[in-house]
Structures are given as structure tokens and as C-alpha cells.
Amino acid sequence: MTDNALSKQLRHPPSGGYARGDETRQRIIESAIVLFGELGFEGASTRAIARHAGVNTPALQYYFENKEGLYVTCADYLAEESYGWFEPLLTRISKLENPDPDTCIEMFCLMLETVLERVLNNRAVHQRRLFHARIKMGQGPEKASLLFQEKLIDHVHRAGVKLVSRISGNAVDNERTQIRVLSLFGLATTFYTVKHPVFNADEEGRQFPAEQMALIKSNVREQCQVLMRSWMV
């Protein structure tokens, strides 16, 4: 079956019917994330994804309608999963009223450490990190990027803007504030595409080596502190 043939009417919509944790559906999503990450939207065929998931190609139509629907579902899955990591910290930041500079710096450092934990641990095989990066760069269907932006990136960015605005005295919608926030997150998001030599990218379920993680966190924290302190009014 070709990718175009998968555009027929669903027998079972992705958002209803079966439980979200359905084993077959979840296996397809996990396989699609790996192949979309490695090959991109155009390069990953539905046939290859089905083979990787150990299902027949019509199963993708049953759950996701077509390749675009599967890609968007993968983006939605990763956005919700990632937001779960950030939610406790975002809640803390939202409740801050007139925080002092040290608190602003500490909160932003914790956000960067959360990014690192998210991209380097939690079964973060190399292809999985690449899929994150592809979405952030706007590759694949636009709907996936917009959804990922709405469900995750906007929330995290707004929290960062609040902290940088407070410490610098510039407005939250000030262009300099926006650029500074992006530059700070860049300290951690560079690891989306880094393939560490001590890792086998095909193995899942392993934790990033603790010593290397501590070293990366320490380095990112140091740079974040230096930059934010240089912006203090």
C-alpha cells in the first residue's frame, strides 16, 4: 500500500475508541518517532514504519489515517510528554511575584536542566532527539510544528521571558528580551542533535552517564549565570 492510499476514511479515529495506551498504537508511534527523526517526514515511508513497529501497513490507516496524521500524532505525543516534565517548574515560575535576581537566575537554570534531562535521558535515542529538532525547525507538516509550539514551546518560552524581563528591566515583548531567552535555551537545546560517543543510539531505556550529565549541567548553569548577571539592571 502506498502512502497516498492511506488517506481513506478511518475506521477508528486517533482520538477516540481505543484506550490511549493501546499497545499497537503506541508501538507505531514509537517506531514513527525513530524513523521520522532519522529520515524526516519525506524520507520515512509508511511501509518502513509499519515494518519497524511489527505491524502491517493498513494498521497505520486504522489508527492515524495517513502519514501526516501519524506525524502530527507523534508531535502531539512528544509535546504532552515533554510538558509533563516542565509543568511543576512552570507552575512555580507562574506564581513568582517580583522575584529577586538570584531567584530568576536559579529558575532559568532549572529550566535548562529540565531540557537536558528531557533530551539526554528518558529513552532519548538519537533519532528521538532529531525528531524534536525537526519539529522545532518546522520540518514536516506545518500542523505538527504549530501544535508542538502551542502545547509546549510557548509555555516554556513565556516562563523564560518572565524571568529575563524581570532581571533586565526590559518589557516581555521587547525584541532584546526575546532574543536573550532564545540564546539561553540554546545552551541546552544544542544537545538535541549531539550523538554522544558513549551511547549506542539504537539502545533504549538507558540513562545518560551520571558524570557526563553532571558536567554538562554544570557547564550550562555556569554560562546561564554569567549571561543573566550581565543583563542585570
From TrEMBL:
<feature type="domain" description="HTH tetR-type">
    <location>
        <begin position="22"/>
        <end position="82"/>
    </location>
</feature>
<dbReference type="InterPro" id="IPR001647">
    <property type="entry name" value="HTH_TetR"/>
</dbReference>
<dbReference type="Pfam" id="PF09209">
    <property type="entry name" value="CecR_C"/>
</dbReference>
<feature type="region of interest" description="Disordered">
    <location>
        <begin position="1"/>
        <end position="21"/>
    </location>
</feature>
<dbReference type="Pfam" id="PF00440">
    <property type="entry name" value="TetR_N"/>
</dbReference>
<keyword id="KW-0238">DNA-binding</keyword>
<dbReference type="InterPro" id="IPR009057">
    <property type="entry name" value="Homeodomain-like_sf"/>
</dbReference>
<dbReference type="GO" id="GO:0000976">
    <property type="term" value="F:transcription cis-regulatory region binding"/>
</dbReference>
<dbReference type="GO" id="GO:0003700">
    <property type="term" value="F:DNA-binding transcription factor activity"/>
</dbReference>
<dbReference type="InterPro" id="IPR050109">
    <property type="entry name" value="HTH-type_TetR-like_transc_reg"/>
</dbReference>
<feature type="DNA-binding region" description="H-T-H motif">
    <location>
        <begin position="45"/>
        <end position="64"/>
    </location>
</feature>
<dbReference type="InterPro" id="IPR015292">
    <property type="entry name" value="Tscrpt_reg_YbiH_C"/>
</dbReference>
<protein>
    <submittedName>
        <fullName>TetR family transcriptional regulator</fullName>
    </submittedName>
</protein>
